[in-house]
Amino acid sequence: MDLANFLIQLLNGVQYGLLLFMLAAGLTLIFGIMGVVNLAHGSFYMLGAYLAWWLVGAIDSLLLAIVLGAVLAFALGWLLEWALFRHFYHRDHLDQVLLTFGLIYLFEESRSLLWGDDVHAVPVPPLLDGSIALTDTLAYPVYRLFMMGLCVLLALGLYALIARTRLGMKIRAGAFNRDMAEALGVNIRLVHGVVFAVGVALAVVAGMIAAPISSVYPNMGAPVLIMCFVVVVIGGIGSVRGAFVAALMVGLVDTFGKVLVPQIASMLIYMLMAAVLLYRPEGLFKQ
């Protein structure tokens, strides 16, 4: 592998890892702070992809569609937390699994009724429909660089929210000791609503920005959900920093594995997870 090909695969691995982080960050926040096992998280990714296809067809602007989709996703997350999830915080994890498993079927059937079962393509915006030449024969798409930049901005925004704001302090307090935080006057219901809505919005936005390069098709959230759980386990449950590091590791291992050792590429990620858990059962970072 020459330097240009190595650079392309490195960029692909980082881009895939950053996209995984957007998904896994929401999942680890919901599970680590609220204690909810959310198997429907992949369905939000699928919903984002279909929203991108539908909104771009209606308003002919992917960037505006992403903004509208994020607002709609935040509202949906808040509604779901208020109507369903807040009633399951003190229930057994099996009850939460059954609830979210049922939501998967609900979202899939709703998607089928609203948008059908066909495969769709989302066009890349003309402004980003170009490539940067690396050599005389190799180039890298501008849209993938845009994806990376947007993911980095959202990651920095999430870090600022949790580490630098008063709301973030309440989120950390609720994650560390919910009863004590509530006794000190923290509105835990409000905190949980915001956390769940942010997690849903991140997953939906990830689906929207991935739609132009992965197409839009039924059940596209299932494989992504598995990868998200791998990232959460490797990084440490409840740790956003761990999710970021683990997502980049998984993205690079998966990308270079498919290029260098395609025969066992599908196993490498799980071998990485097993190796991490062997030496650090709690994951790379604690909450």
Automatic annotation (TrEMBL):
Transmembrane segments: 16-39, 51-80, 142-162, 190-212, 224-252, 259-279
Gene: livH_1
Keywords: Amino-acid transport, Cell membrane, Membrane, Transmembrane, Transmembrane helix, Transport
Highest taxon listed in the record's lineage: Bacteria
A GO cellular-component term linked to this record: plasma membrane
Single annotated GO MF: transmembrane transporter activity
InterPro entries, A to Z: ABC_transp_permease (IPR001851), BCAA_transport_permease (IPR052157)
Pfam families: BPD_transp_2
Protein's membrane topology: Multi-pass membrane protein
Organism placement in taxonomy: Bacteria, Pseudomonadati, Pseudomonadota, Betaproteobacteria, Burkholderiales
Cellular localization per UniProt: Cell membrane
Gene Ontology biological process terms from the UniProt entry: amino acid transport
Membership in a protein family: Belongs to the binding-protein-dependent transport system permease family. LivHM subfamily.
Predominant place of localization: membrane
Name recorded for this polypeptide: High-affinity branched-chain amino acid transport system permease protein LivH
Claim: Cell membrane is one of the keywords in the record: yes
